[in-house]
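Ticket closed. Logging final result for GLPGLI family protein.
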Amino acid sequence: MKDSAKITSQNTFLNIKENTSTFFSEAPYLSDSIIASDQKAGRKINFKALPGDLLGCYIKKNISSKKITYYSDEFDEHEYKYEESPDLKWEIAKENKVILGFKVYAASTNYAGRKYYAYFTTELPIQDGPYKFCGLPGLILEIFDEKNDHHFLATGISKENKISIDDYITKRKYIETSKEKFIEMRKNHAEAPLKRMFEMMNSNQIYEKKDANSTIIDIRKVLGETQRKMIEEYKKENMIEL
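Final structure:
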């Protein structure tokens, strides 16, 4: 959120296997587990109670080539993917400290409209890190932007692959696009998130329906109010990439 007084956090995971890595939040995994548990118990699924994904994407990296595949996870009808090879120019400083028992060194870079400060360890010689950040001579254990709007900090390291999102990505169909087209599409979506529903309503020329009490509901008014609230929420979003 853009409201600096409100701090939200969520667990994320960076799974590294040989020359590839996957970065994702715990939200889709937890949601699937809750849905499966409710279905098994015969309970009605309360979709509003499911954890929201603050990240809104999955990131796959080829560590050696630094090629990144971005998979969106924020739209209802279609999801998208694009490839990117960001040219991160790192400046390494003399400052150092300890994170999780590892000596880490300071570095900084600029990406997508923000300046970031990172701490990486050469004791884990994997040139990777959270989100799209990579390319330092070690693993990034902490990184944050200069306003601290976004802050990633490692809280644990395990050799076990406890949670994976690979099957989740493989089963879904993504529309291939470019980063530039995706940014433009997302901007248009934020300005009119229910555009498709309005188009369907106008195409079918159905503008009213009865609720459970047989009261006539003006669909245009309901959709209009819902879209207005969604637009306001989009305006409050604290996007990683400006």
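The longest strand covers residues 102-111. No further action required.
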